[in-house]
UniProtKB/TrEMBL annotation:
F(1)F(0) ATP synthase produces ATP from ADP in the presence of a proton or sodium gradient. F-type ATPases consist of two structural domains, F(1) containing the extramembraneous catalytic core and F(0) containing the membrane proton channel, linked together by a central stalk and a peripheral stalk. During catalysis, ATP synthesis in the catalytic domain of F(1) is coupled via a rotary mechanism of the central stalk subunits to proton translocation. It comes from Shewanella nanhaiensis. It is found in: Cell membrane; Membrane. This is ATP synthase subunit delta. Belongs to the ATPase delta chain family. The lineage of its organism: Bacteria, Pseudomonadati, Pseudomonadota, Gammaproteobacteria, Alteromonadales. InterPro entries: ATP_synth_OSCP/delta_N_sf, ATPase_OSCP/dsu.
Length: 177
């Protein structure tokens, strides 16, 4: 995984810098996401690592993407095809999105709760996280009844475990030591 990220980072950075320059960050994020989905297609995957010449692969890939990818996006795909890197498109797309969130001072937070959260509770969590992280927070809420009660919040490297299951586990660990 680290190797793919290392390979993908320069492409994501170049695309992001270009998107910032052209004020087209959202459209580039959409293009890269679409191209990443094409590269993960079961029919397309074998072609990416197959024996097609790079210019043939680039033409095929761009043909499949069609109007979803503009001329500059096509140029990026051609360069990636020439270097045999089209299979890293999902990582390029992911890194691009991370750069976009960092640039826009946004972060996605996953909130797993034992029961469904009301909109007021979600708003409270969002406000608290925005204050703590000094970023705009987008919540992704889900339910896991095995938590018994409480919730677990994950935002980037931050993990807040306020679940009963987590507290019981920490109590058990401290009693055993």
């Amino acid at each position: 995984m680290a190797e793919i990220t290392t390979i993908a980072r320069p492409y994501a950075k170049a695309a992001f810098d270009f998107a910032i320059e052209k004020n087209a960050v959202d459209s580039w994020a959409e293009m890269l996401n679409f191209a990443a989905m094409v590269s993960e297609n079961e029919t397309m995957k074998p072609l990416l690592t197959g024996s097609l010449a790079s210019h043939q692969l680039a033409e095929l890939f761009i043909g499949v993407c069609g109007e979803q990818v503009n001329e500059q996006g096509q140029n990026l795909l051609k360069v990636m095809a020439e270097n045999g890197r089209l299979e890293t498109l999902p990582a390029v797309s992911q890194l691009f999105v991370e750069m976009k969130h960092e640039w826009a001072k946004e972060i996605e937070a996953n909130v797993v709760s034992a029961t469904e959260l009301s909109s007021e509770q979600q708003q409270e969590i969002s406000v608290s996280l925005e204050k703590r992280l000094t970023r705009k927070v987008k919540l992704n809420c889900s339910i896991d009844a095995s938590l018994i009660a409480g919730l677990i919040i994950t935002a980037g490297d931050l993990v807040i475990d306020g679940s009963v299951r987590g507290k019981v586990s920490r109590l058990s660990d401290s009693l055993q030591s």
